[in-house]
């Protein structure tokens, strides 16, 4: 019995050892000098938004977080007292941090992978520009952007490239999708992710970010109208210029014919296009016609200024809110859909010269 028990326990020990070694988790740990008593949070990103994964109140300078592997590379951050340190995780590695409470987010050392070192370098380069020239200089500093562009092009389907093109200082993006030269860099990343990471959850976001802004520099399409058949709508519930949410689904219950339009107020063609829409709106509004216009502008203030005097419904999606663009398969603007009196999508219009004749069929 003694030998059996000994052998059995030995077998269990080996099994536990194998399980521990094959744990499908990644870890971030380290030392924060002076951090005792402060709340430290571990946060994950979702295409620009952040949410908490875990938190702890430091009982000493040391900390340790472990999380299940996501199955794809991703960006995470540590937060303490409103300051942040960003780091990538590729798979199941361990990331180590050394810093102090008073210098958290500004002076620190990260170790773990090549991507970890590169993101630390990105943060240092950006901080140099901010400290010497101010926050708004990051978007126009040619030297900084050349250095960052080299990092992106070296591995456009890598997590560092994704991190750089989504990085903002305050509300100012370093690579602005509404700037042609920046959009080319974003397009390179979107293309690389599409080719090399088709199942990555960020790929669709990158494609729509690029396409929504590319359309600003492309002439409006003049193809034949595409009939998509009777399809129930996807709801859109976004703010109008007064900051009040307006639901497309709610408008569709009022028995009106609705022209759903995805557009950009800052596109060169937008004023002329809205003039044509105004002619149609004024002619048909008393017959139960409405326009629900969704703006994908980068600059919310510019949209608000242009939209506040429009007689129809205008809401703001921006380029950081791709959900409705994905659902309605928007790959160029203006994108136009006819919603009939039963609240169903009847047609997608891709020839803007046929808007009036198409609308008139449903009134």
Write the layout of secondary structure elements.
Layout: H1 2-21, E1 25-33, E2 39-46, E3 49-57, E4 62-68, E5 74-80, E6 83-89, E7 94-100, E8 108-111, H2 114-133, H3 142-154, H4 159-165, E9 168-169, E10 172-173, H5 180-196, H6 203-214, E11 226-232, E12 237-239, E13 245-247, H7 248-251, E14 257-263, H8 270-284, E15 289-295, H9 300-307, E16 313-316, H10 323-327, E17 335-339, E18 344-349, H11 355-360
Parallel strand pairs: 1-7, 14-15, 15-16
Antiparallel strand pairs: 1-4, 2-3, 2-5, 5-6, 7-8, 9-10, 11-18, 12-13, 14-17, 17-18
Helix pairs in contact: 2-4, 3-4, 5-6
Explain briefly what this protein structure is.
The chain has 363 residues and is α+β, with helices and mostly antiparallel strands. It has helices at 2-21, 114-133, 142-154, 159-165, 180-196, 203-214, 248-251, 270-284, 300-307, 323-327, 355-360, and strands spanning 25-33, 39-46, 49-57, 62-68, 74-80, 83-89, 94-100, 108-111, 168-169, 172-173, 226-232, 237-239, 245-247, 257-263, 289-295, 313-316, 335-339, 344-349.
Summarize the structure in words:
By secondary structure, this protein is of the alpha+beta class. 35% of the residues lie in helices and 29% in strands. The chain has helices at 2-21, 114-133, 142-154, 159-165, 180-196, 203-214, 248-251, 270-284, 300-307, 323-327, 355-360, and strands spanning 25-33, 39-46, 49-57, 62-68, 74-80, 83-89, 94-100, 108-111, 168-169, 172-173, 226-232, 237-239, 245-247, 257-263, 289-295, 313-316, 335-339, 344-349. The strands form 5 sheets. Strands 11-18-17-14-15-16 form a 6-stranded mixed sheet. A 4-stranded mixed sheet has the order 4-1-7-8. Helix 2 (114-133) runs parallel beside helix 4 and helix 5 (180-196) runs antiparallel to helix 6 (203-214). Residues 1-22 and 219-230 have low confidence and may be disordered.
């Amino acid at each position: 019995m003694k030998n059996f028990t000994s052998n059995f326990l030995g077998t269990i020990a080996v099994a536990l050892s194998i399980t521990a070694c094959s744990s499908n988790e990644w870890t971030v740990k380290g030392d924060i000098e002076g951090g005792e008593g402060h709340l430290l949070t571990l946060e994950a990103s979702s295409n620009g938004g952040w949410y908490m994964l875990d938190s702890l109140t430091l009982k000493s300078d040391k900390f340790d977080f472990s999380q299940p592997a996501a199955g794809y590379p991703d960006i995470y951050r540590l937060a303490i007292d409103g300051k942040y340190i960003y780091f990538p995780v590729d798979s199941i590695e361990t990331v180590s941090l050394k810093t102090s409470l008073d210098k958290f987010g500004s002076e620190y050392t990260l170790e773990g992978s090549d991507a970890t070192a590169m993101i630390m370098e990105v943060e240092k380069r950006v901080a140099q520009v901010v400290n010497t020239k101010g926050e708004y200089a990051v978007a126009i500093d040619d030297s900084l952007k050349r250095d960052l562009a080299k990092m992106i092009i070296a591995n456009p389907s890598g997590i560092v490239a994704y991190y750089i093109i989504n990085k903002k200082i305050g509300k100012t993006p370093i690579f602005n999708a509404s700037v042609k030269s920046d959009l080319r860099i974003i397009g390179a990343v979107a293309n690389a992710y599409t080719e090399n990471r088709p199942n990555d959850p960020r790929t669709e976001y990158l494609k729509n970010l690029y396409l929504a802004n590319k359309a600003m520099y492309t002439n409006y399409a003049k193809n034949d109208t595409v009939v998509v058949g009777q399809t129930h709508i996807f709801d859109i519930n976004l703010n109008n210029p007064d900051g009040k949410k307006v639901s497309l689904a709610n408008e569709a219950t009022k028995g009106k014919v609705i022209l759903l339009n995805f557009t950009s107020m800052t596109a060169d063609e937008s004023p002329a296009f809205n003039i044509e829409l105004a002619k149609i709106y004024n002619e048909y509004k008393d017959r139960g016609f409405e326009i629900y216009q969704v703006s994908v502008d980068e600059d919310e203030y510019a949209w608000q200024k242009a939209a506040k005097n429009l007689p129809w419904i205008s809401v703001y999606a921006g380029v950081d809110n791709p959900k409705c663009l994905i659902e309605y398969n928007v790959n160029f603007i203006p994108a136009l859909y006819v919603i009939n009196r039963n609240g169903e999508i009847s047609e997608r219009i891709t020839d803007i010269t046929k808007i009036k004749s198409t609308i008139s069929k449903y009134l």
